[in-house]
Known about the structure:
Blueprint: E1 5-10, H1 18-23, H2 31-45, E2 54-63, H3 65-74, H4 84-89, E3 92-101, H5 123-128, H6 144-153, E4 159-169, E5 172-182, E6 186-188, E7 191-200, E8 214-215, H7 216-226, E9 237-243, H8 251-265, E10 281-286, E11 289-290, H9 300-319, E12 333-340, E13 343-353, E14 368-372, E15 379-384, E16 395-401, H10 406-411, H11 427-448, E17 460-461, H12 465-472, E18 501-509, E19 519-528, E20 534-543, E21 558-563, E22 569-570, E23 575-578, E24 582-590, E25 595-603
Helix pairs in contact: 2-6, 2-8
Amino acid sequence: xxxxxxxxxxxxxxxxxxxxxxxxxxxxxxxxxxxxxxxxxxxxxxxxxxxxxxxxxxxxxxxxxxxxxxxxxxxxxxxxxxxxxxxxxxxxxxxxxxxxxxxxxxxxxxxxxxxxxxxxxxxxxxxxxxxxxxxxxxxxxxxxxxxxxxxxxxxxxxxxxxxxxxxxxxxxxxxxxxxxxxxxxxxxxxxxxxxxxxxxxxxxxxxxxxxxxxxxxxxxxxxxxxxxxxxxxxxxxxxxxxxxxxxxxxxxxxxxxxxxxxxxxxxxxxxxxxxxxxxxxxxxxxxxxxxxxxxxxxxxxxxxxxxxxxxxxxxxxxxxxxxxxxxxxxxxxxxxxxxxxxxxxxxxxxxxxxxxxxxxxxxxxxxxxxxxxxxxxxxxxxxxxxxxxxxxxxxxxxxxxxxxxxxxxxxxxxxxxxxxxxxxxxxxxxxxxxxxxxxxxxxxxxxxxxxxxxxxxxxxxxxxxxxxxxxxxxxxxxxxxxxxxxxxxxxxxxxxxxxxxxxxxxxxxxxxxxxxxxxxxxxxxxxxxxxxxxxxxxxxxxxxxxxxxxxxxxxxxxxxxxxxxxxxxxxxxxxxxxxxxxxxxxxxxxxxxxxxxxxxxxxx
Length: 604
């Protein structure tokens, strides 16, 4: 069996220290969920046409001969600051083996400086050599470099073994194996190293940091000695070994969280009787034994989500002129989400009541809208609406944008793919995504509390803001004039000491050089006032016009961002702040019109 060469990356201009790479990940997602989400998304993106990909996470303890192979043949050297040497001295090592099959594997060139034609694969170098490389598959779900970094983040010694099998010509396969680590930077002799290391093959006569994988029968010999799941004839795919996982709360807790993360994040791939092009075979094993993963037969919440997704698929298939393949549950309500300026269909929202029985394993996941992209159908976020009046009980919802806007929503995601942030987009797409998110909230509010069932509104602070803003804005040509725009209805006579939100000031924000010249922005200063600790603030925005309630086109008025007293910015249709806190909101609207703004406050 071949011994691998140890290659450490020396510092060069612009290099980031290895532990700095991990710090760049900043995420709110717990490690088990992050590891599963990112590796499964990469596997989904790498799926082969006409095949159902297989994804499996194996929790195993390795020892004896396997540790001997790792210590004597793979990890032939390491940095002084790495915990890898200590791990390999242990008689038994915890590991997570993750594999996919029915995927392309890590194909493409094995060095970073090779020029490739457009459309040619670069999966190997994106995963092994580059952090944060975007996937080349159109409208895919993952980011190869980030998925790799998530795997490093799950290892206490920041170390992976990577084994892949690819198709290089009809009937001709190649196996590649390499190990990699991301550790703190270190110094050997008079040279500093980033902490990024590889174990592979150093080209003869080359003393640089260039590294190649072990190939062919030598790769297979090492891979079959280390991994439990090998490659069957004709199979392609990738296997990862995460050494010494970061079981911060213990092994059992990590396994339980991973088990729960499958139906939370990947339930769309497990619907019964759906087309093979939408499915992924997902499984978990512990010490060689498969464990049960909850599905719609175990959870009313999952079943209701599946019904909503089928309804959205049906609506979008009809809109695309495609014959729908599944019946729609009559209890599901589907709403089109429109932006009226410019008039654009943004997506479809399905909501349904969901009476959750005691003991449902996902009882804490009702009362949310699952946001997902159109093509990948991978869960981006389960968005809650805790401040909305609920008159129907438990419910769930699903939203998908239309195919034409998938790229806009995709571009608004951070590397963790766990939210949509319109503020990261240019003005045209920003308005569409922002409007879509706001419209979803409006439809949820209507579904939970129909207008004819609502008796009272939460306390609100309208003040004379609309009139004041009208002084600063010109009425549209041809519209009634006569001074400031008036509110559509008389504001409630709420005194400052009882109102939960008080408007204390406003100012016009100068337009930026690269901004939309047709859009104006006003920054409104608000004060949260409540006997409780926190206040949830939501806006009601409209264009005001003399003698009428509104123009009926609120898409033209939207929230640009909220800013807390500490200077932290948020997007979305509301904000939760401490009582007594002063904060601001940027309201965007067509230049030259008057706007009406009402801010509702509820104890949170």
